[in-house]
Design brief:
By secondary structure, the protein is of the alpha/beta class. The chain is built from 11 helices and 6 strands. It has a domain of 190 residues: Uracil-DNA Glycosylase, subunit E (3-Layer(aba) Sandwich). It is an enzyme of class 3 (hydrolase).
Length: 297
């Protein structure tokens, strides 16, 4: 008997009616038509593991090119025998060196050790306050040495700003005549200066910050010239030099004392400004009394 065709292991074999009759006669119908048991997969063959002998170096393998080239900035030597290592930490960026502009030295410190010529140069080049922006000339002062009298005015006017000299024009002519009447001369023994060395716009009164910036020049002039007495002309100059807000009427007619940084006391006499006397000629008599008081000290 010919065996039936092979069928999948999980299904019963197919037979035709004639074959079924023969199987029934032989008593093998049930046995033959029973489904075959599922096939069991054969175990995979065991692959022997070869132990590598590290006592001898392996043969050099052919170099295998990288599939994708590594970025050049990551190729860093990490030590002896290592091709690539972690990229080094970036160096901290150096901050741009910004040289801070040196702070301007206060005038009082700048003039502390200056002689008269150095002091003049400092006044001419001064930018300590805003008055420097509108001046033609800074007015240092002018006069004879040794100095018997120091005459102190308020600030340069228009003519003083043009010429760079103190008390010029009609006011200066009147002052020269007044000094000559008591035997004094700006060319011989009188030095004339101002509290403020630059002309305020429109001849206005100087501002407090302008006085603070400029008055150290006058203080240094007094220390260098060492005058026997000081004649102060005008309310503003008198109040600044004596450190008071008293009126000029209450300050004139008597002798004040000014103490220098060196401890020296200098007599101070207050009088009217020549420009005021030109506007108020009746006050010239009182100004004459002030001059005689200064001459007697």
């Amino acid at each position: 008997m010919t065996a039936p065709h092979s069928t999948p292991a999980s299904a019963a074999p197919r037979v035709n009616p004639l074959q079924r009759l023969w199987l029934r006669e032989l008593g093998m119908e049930r046995l033959w038509l029973r489904p075959a048991p599922p096939a069991v997969a054969a175990p995979a063959p065991q692959v022997p593991v070869l132990k590598q002998d590290f006592s001898t170096p392996p043969a050099a393998a052919a170099p295998v090119p990288d599939a994708v080239p590594a970025p050049t900035d990551t190729l860093r030597p990490a030590g002896p025998g290592l091709r690539n290592g972690p990229p080094p930490k970036p160096a901290p960026k150096a901050e741009a060196a910004v040289e801070a502009a040196p702070a301007p030295m206060p005038v009082a410190m700048a003039v502390k050790h200056a002689n008269l010529d150095e002091l003049r140069e400092q006044v001419v080049a001064c930018t300590a306050c805003g008055l420097c922006g509108g001046r033609r000339h800074a007015v240092f002062g002018h006069g004879g040495q040794p100095t018997r009298w120091l005459v102190v005015g308020e600030a340069p006017g228009e003519q003083e700003d043009r010429q760079g000299q103190p008390f010029v024009g009609r006011s200066g002519q009147l002052l020269d005549a007044m000094l000559s009447a008591v035997g004094m001369s700006r060319e011989r023994d009188v030095f004339i200066a101002n509290v403020i060395k630059c002309r305020p716009p429109g001849n206005r009164n100087p501002k407090p910050e302008e006085i603070a910036a400029c008055s150290p020049y006058l203080m240094r002039q007094i220390a260098l010239l060492k005058p026997e007495r000081i004649l102060v002309l005008g309310r503003f100059a008198a109040q600044t030099l004596l450190g008071t807000d008293a009126t000029i009427g209450s300050l004139r007619g008597r002798v004040h004392q000014m103490k220098t940084d060196e401890g020296r006391e200098i007599p101070v006499i207050v009088s009217y400004h020549p420009a005021y006397l030109l506007r108020s000629p009746a006050e010239k008599a009182r100004a004459w009394q002030d001059l005689k008081l200064a001459a007697r000290v």
